[in-house]
From TrEMBL:
<keyword id="KW-0350">Heme biosynthesis</keyword>
<dbReference type="GO" id="GO:0006782">
    <property type="term" value="P:protoporphyrinogen IX biosynthetic process"/>
</dbReference>
<dbReference type="Pfam" id="PF01593">
    <property type="entry name" value="Amino_oxidase"/>
</dbReference>
<dbReference type="GO" id="GO:0005743">
    <property type="term" value="C:mitochondrial inner membrane"/>
</dbReference>
<protein>
    <recommendedName>
        <fullName>Protoporphyrinogen oxidase</fullName>
        <ecNumber>1.3.3.4</ecNumber>
    </recommendedName>
</protein>
<comment type="function">
    <text>Catalyzes the 6-electron oxidation of protoporphyrinogen-IX to form protoporphyrin-IX.</text>
</comment>
<keyword id="KW-0560">Oxidoreductase</keyword>
<comment type="pathway">
    <text>Porphyrin-containing compound metabolism; protoporphyrin-IX biosynthesis; protoporphyrin-IX from protoporphyrinogen-IX: step 1/1.</text>
</comment>
<dbReference type="GO" id="GO:0004729">
    <property type="term" value="F:oxygen-dependent protoporphyrinogen oxidase activity"/>
</dbReference>
<comment type="similarity">
    <text>Belongs to the protoporphyrinogen/coproporphyrinogen oxidase family. Protoporphyrinogen oxidase subfamily.</text>
</comment>
<keyword id="KW-0274">FAD</keyword>
<keyword id="KW-0285">Flavoprotein</keyword>
<keyword id="KW-0627">Porphyrin biosynthesis</keyword>
<dbReference type="InterPro" id="IPR004572">
    <property type="entry name" value="Protoporphyrinogen_oxidase"/>
</dbReference>
<dbReference type="InterPro" id="IPR002937">
    <property type="entry name" value="Amino_oxidase"/>
</dbReference>
<dbReference type="InterPro" id="IPR036188">
    <property type="entry name" value="FAD/NAD-bd_sf"/>
</dbReference>
<feature type="domain" description="Amine oxidase">
    <location>
        <begin position="10"/>
        <end position="297"/>
    </location>
</feature>
């Protein structure tokens, strides 16, 4: 069986990796439009040794997704290259935001959450009361900003969520979907009428830790040492390069400078069109950003 993975960013490379793990005999082709792999992950090391990240700079450990990425790095032999930041360290504890030309430290302890600190107009902890009081609004989806504004008040939306969305997603919280980014927060509000009440009442439906991931030595170490975030020596692109090498050694065909132009159905299989070439394939996994996938000629099935 041939499987074609569209996009050679970290999603496409990871998809090819797990596919190879579960299906060692299939032919896997990764098509990447650019001459380089990694998509947004783009690390540059300058002559003074400092690494600059053009996109993501750190990865979190929390949740199964966070643990899984760390376990992946370990399985690729990157353990010695992992660089961690622990919760107690200043760079993890101190989040600064710039408002009207001045820098402000975001509250990071119970004491500071109970104190009125600029730019907030009241102690941050009082936002919890807003959430308990605010009426539920039945909504299939809305922007992250509007959701937080409605539940926790405008201070939290403007001074915490807006900069957070810019830092994490390089996006505007007013345009980003709450359901896509904070699905559980949205779900518990819709079910229980309040985010905080919902998290308490709905504990049994919270994500359960995957016991398989707890076997990873690095995940165990990260949990024990309370890592906040981690990266790799020479930047996150080390993960991309190592993963790509591993895939190519495992027989995965990675085609750079090969934009996907169209996908068609033909006589029981799919045909993926790229630069002057057509790849017959049984399955396609798209790891393209939605706005790029929408540029690919629509799938037409003639079977
Ligand atoms: C500025 C910024 C900072 C971020 N910081 C963090 C962070 O610190 N921590 C964190 O966890 N996340 C962070 N993120 C999010 C993270 O970078 C992304 O979630 C992740 O890199 C997305 O990977 P991807 O493979 O899904 O998409 P992309 O990285 O966008 O990769 C998509 C790939 O598809 C290719 N492609 C596009 N069109 C075609 C086509 N027609 N044919 C073939 N290939 C095509 C592109 O060239 C690209 O290589 C950040 C994002 C940004 C933008």
């Amino acid at each position: 069986m041939t499987v074609t993975v569209l996009g050679g960013g970290i999603s496409g490379l990871a998809a090819a990796h797990y596919l190879r793990t579960v299906n060692p005999s299939s032919r896997i082709v990764v098509l990447e439009a650019s001459h380089r792999l990694g998509g947004w992950i783009d690390s540059t090391k300058h002559s003074d040794g400092v690494v600059y990240e053009g996109g993501p700079r750190t990865l979190r450990v929390v949740g199964n997704a966070g643990a899984n990425t760390l376990a992946l790095a370990e399985s690729l032999g990157l353990r010695d290259k992992v660089r961690s930041v622990h919760y107690g360290e200043p760079s993890a504890k101190n989040r600064m935001i710039k408002v009207n030309g001045s820098l402000h430290k975001l509250p990071n302890s119970l004491k500071t959450a109970l104190t009125k600190l600029p730019p907030f107009s009241k102690p941050l902890a009082l936002s919890a009361i807003s959430d308990l009081r605010a009426k539920k609004v039945l909504a299939d989806d809305e922007s992250l900003f509007s959701f937080v504004n409605r539940r926790f008040g405008s201070d939290v939306a403007r001074y915490a969520i807006d900069p957070l969305a810019r830092g994490v997603f390089a996006g505007n919280a007013r345009d980003l979907s709450v359901k896509a980014l904070a699905k559980r927060m949205h779900e518990v509000e819709q079910k229980h009428g309040s985010v905080l009440k919902g998290f308490i009442k709905d504990r049994k439906n919270a994500e359960k830790p995957d016991p398989g991931l707890a076997k990873s030595d690095l995940v165990q170490q990260a949990r024990k040492e309370k890592w906040a975030v981690w990266s790799l020596q020479d930047g996150l692109e080390t993960l991309v390069k190592t993963l790509a090498e591993h895939l190519e050694q495992g027989g995965v065909e990675i085609r750079r400078s090969s934009p996907v132009l169209g996908i068609q159905g033909s006589q029981g299989h799919l045909v993926v069109q790229t630069n002057g070439e057509e790849i017959q394939t049984e399955r396609v996994i798209s790891c393209l950003p939605a706005n790029h996938l929408s540029q690919v000629n629509p799938v037409r099935f003639s079977v």
